[in-house]
Amino acid sequence: MRPINHIGRRKFLRKIFLGFSAFMFTFFKPFLGSWNRAFGGFNFWRSSEYVGKTRDGKYKQFYIQYYKSFRRIDGTNWRLKVNGLCENPEEFTLDMLENLPRQTQVSRIKCVECWSAKAEWAGFSISEIEKLVKPQPEAIAIVFRCADTYVEYLPLEDMHHERALLVYAMNNEPLSDEHGFPLRAIIPFKYGYKSPKAILEIEYVNRFKRGTWTQIGPYSADGTILPGYDHPLDRGKKRRQIFGGEIFD
Ligand SMILES: Nc1nc2c(c(=O)[nH]1)N[C@H]1C(S)=C(S)[C@@H](COP(=O)(O)O)O[C@H]1N2
Ligand SMILES: [Mo]
To answer: What is the pTM of this model?
Structure first.
């Protein structure tokens, strides 16, 4: 009589295990589809009290970029803090900002990672805020601080450009959390990373530094759109040549 062969038994157990797995897979595969249909439309970020990176925003022609997730902002408690090198530091409610002279513009966000997308934005020029806070002559730039701890510097010269806006509405609706509620910048002649969202604070400073995105990626601190290529999401990502600066169509 042959002794019990341990190797043989291990092989046998493995066969049983593989057979069982194959059976489970074949048997349950048809149910994977309905599982997907039931839960596939589920978007964690949209149904949680946090906002984060998602490709499932309301406007399908936009990708949504957040450096970190953060708790949704309650517009009634939110204040835009404006401080630093200015004579009258001030905190603005959303209501106060919505009552500033309103400007609308259609412009495109061009992400340095190649996609771009277009919307109609409504808001105001930072010069409206400056009539009240009165920046000091030493101030050369501002720092935006955002809800997701994103930080970005913009020279005052760029902020005073006629196409630079602070906006609270997108396509005739209040900004969604995904696109920067309650307030974001739109600087259309610079890459998207120079248009911070979910702004909490604006500080007037006498220095210019790299922001969050240009510390992560190999991108310029200045952020001016360079000649190259664009893949507009609203035109089926069809590649087109661009010549630098704002993309007007
Ligand atoms: N607060 C904050 N603002 C941000 C970012 C971010 O990570 N955090 N990403 C920027 C980048 S890289 C781009 S391309 C645009 C994208 O705007 P959207 O998310 O509305 O499409 O947001 C910019 N503003
Ligand atoms: Mo971006």
So the answer is: 0.83
